[in-house]
Amino acid sequence: MSRSLAVVPHLVRMYVSTRMEYRGAMLLAWFAQALSYAATYTAIALLLLRFGNLGGWTWSEMALLLSFHLLAYSLGASLSFTQFRDIEEKVRLGTFDAVLIKPVSPWVYLVFSGLNIGYVGHIILAVGLMAWSVTQVGVNWSILSALYFVAGLLSAAMVTAAIMTMIGATALVWVRSKHLFSIFFGFWELARYPLNIFPVPLQILMLTIAPLGFLAFVPVAVTLGKPVPLLGDWAGPASLLAGPLAVLLGALHWRHCIQNYQGAGG
Amino acid sequence: MRAAAYPAFALTAFQSRLVYRNQVWASAFGDLVSIFARIAIWTAAFAGATQVDGITLPEMVTYALLSGPLLYWEYSRVLYDVGDAVRTGDVAVFLLKPLHYPSYLLSTHFGHFAFECVAIVVPVALIVGFTVGLLPPASLFHGLMFFPYWAVSWLILFTLACLCGLLAFWLLTAFSLEWLLMAIMSLFSGAIIPLWFLPTPLATIFGYLPFAWISYYPAAVYLGKLDPTATWLHLGIGLLWLGLLTAAVLALWGKARTRLVVQGG
After folding, report:
1. Residues 31..50 of A with a Cβ closer than 8 Å to B: which?
2. In this structure, are residues B146 and B135 in contact, taking their beta carbons and an 8 Å threshold?
3. pLDDT attached to residue A264
4. Does B253 map to a domain?
5. Please, are residues B79 and B165 in contact by the beta-carbon 8 Å criterion?
6. Residue A265 burial (CB < 10 Å; 0-12/13-18/19+)?
7. I need a labelling partner for A253 at 20 to 30 A (CA). Which of A51, A68, A160, B52 fits?
8. How many domains does chain B divide into?
């Protein structure tokens, strides 16, 4: 375990160095991604400008929801998305075998040898929007509420990383799992809107099998003091537990898939 | 290469998609979730109102289906194809072949689009139609005019994606270009919010840009929001934009061929 952790800074340094070789492309990508999210958020803002609110959420509250959604996702996905999306290719080509014989944990190696610094644009936009929105929403901030907000953010990032780990790990058994990311991103898109506007079956789905309701809606609704469908008063503790629970399930699934990995062919 | 050979590329692309059945299920499920979410968003926005700015909720449900899965197709595949060909050097192979690369892209991606229409959009439209309900065209004229608008929409989006893809010859990456195009499309095409709900100055400006012909105008014509004169006039403007964009693609391809630097080997 300590040997695995000791190698992490080296893996990260190597990967960042390779990305910095293409500095212009990297900066352009940060800018383009931030611009794309900003355009979508502008469209949502224009919608709210015309209709006043969406399911009882005003623009400043929506801005907090959107920024929380983007920040939590970026933190979790930088540790997982590209790394686990590409497992399928490694399995198909047989290069995943090389990961297994390295003297470090395969998960640690995959995550940190591909730590995605491409999310910097997302994070700058999310932090900027969040800084503006927290001053606009009517929340009486206290140490406890601020601590809950930060803990909810970390828990949400854990949910993202755990789900992506599980999807990627599935490729070790099914060989293909990239298509599951399409389903993930379907629910991910819904998670940027208030959960109460969706039909009840979708709400249940977003709080159980596809728990992306915890990515932004539940912690932000608790912070704003808004009612959370289905969870009620349990929403606060549930949002803090969702991350660790998802990580536990993710770890079990990863271990199961690693144990059942047989390669893609002959 | 004879023009008759290009449909074969479209057919091959169509058939190649049949192999990846899990991707079809996943995409159909993703589109279904997305369209039901959009319906829920518009239902929440209307908040019980019969109509807003002369638009009813059933019209918005139909607009969401038309402007989303049908008209706003998976154009990023064009950028990936060109980007990968430039990055890996495979584009040199296309230059050696007796074919016109942009025409090859057009045929191939039409094949992909046709497959997605048959395997994903039609089933999604049927499910939405039977569960939520979709409106028929406002009239026979508007129904018939939707088809040329649909063709113009598809070709404009293809030429825009192709233009961004060809810029990869200079930038050596298509990744950022895809995101830049996505930013433009989110705001200007009407795929997320139709122009009739925008403040008038913005709607006026956006209404003259080519992006509005991708989602907004075809859906607006289907719903009868343009009278016959305006329908013909806007079709003409759309064709003008298409001509300009096609000329830009051909000019850029002419420059890109002489600009090509393949790394490695």
Report:
1. 31-33, 35-36, 38-40, 42-44, 46-47, 49-50
2. no
3. 74
4. yes
5. yes
6. exposed
7. A68
8. 1
Q: How far apart are CA A127 and CA A37, in angstroms?
A: 13
What is the enclosing helix (H) or strand (E) of A183?
A: helix A178-190
Q: How far is CA A76 from the centre of its chain?
A: 4
Task: Kindly state the helix (H) or strand (E) to which residue B55 belongs, with its residue range.
Answer: strand B55-56
- In tens digits, chain B (265 residues) has pLDDT values of 577 788 998 998 888 888 777 778 888 888 888 888 889 999 999 987 888 988 999 999 999 989 888 888 888 888 888 888 877 878 888 888 888 888 999 999 999 999 989 988 899 889 988 998 899 999 999 999 999 999 999 999 999 999 998 888 888 778 899 999 999 998 999 988 999 999 999 999 999 999 999 999 999 999 999 999 999 999 999 999 999 999 999 999 888 888 776 655 4
A197 with B29: Cβ contact below 8 A? no
pLDDT of residue B265: 46
What range defines the domain where residue B223 resides? 3-259
3-state secondary structure of A98: helix
Spatial separation of the C-alpha atoms in residues A87 and A178, rounded to whole Å: 9
Q: Which residues make Cβ contacts (< 8 Å) with residue A137, sequence separation at least 6? A: A60, A61, A64, A224
User: Is B265 within a domain?
Assistant: no
Q: B252: which 2 tokens?
A: 């850029």
The DSSP element (H or E) to which B51 belongs, if any, is strand B51-52
Asked if A45 contacts A59 with a C-beta cutoff of 8 angstroms, the reply is: yes
- Asked if the Cβ–Cβ distance from A198 to B37 is below 8 Å, we say yes
The pair of structure tokens assigned to B208 is: 């003259």
Determine, yes or no, domain membership for B264. no
Residue in chain B lying closest to A29 (CA): B176
Cα A70 to Cα A63, A157, A249, B178, distances in angstroms: 10, 10, 23, 19
Give the B window 199-218 contacts with A, CB below 8 Å: 199, 202
Enter the ipTM: 0.89
The one-letter code for the residue type at A14 is: M
Contact status, residue B238 vs residue B152, Cβ threshold 8 Å = yes
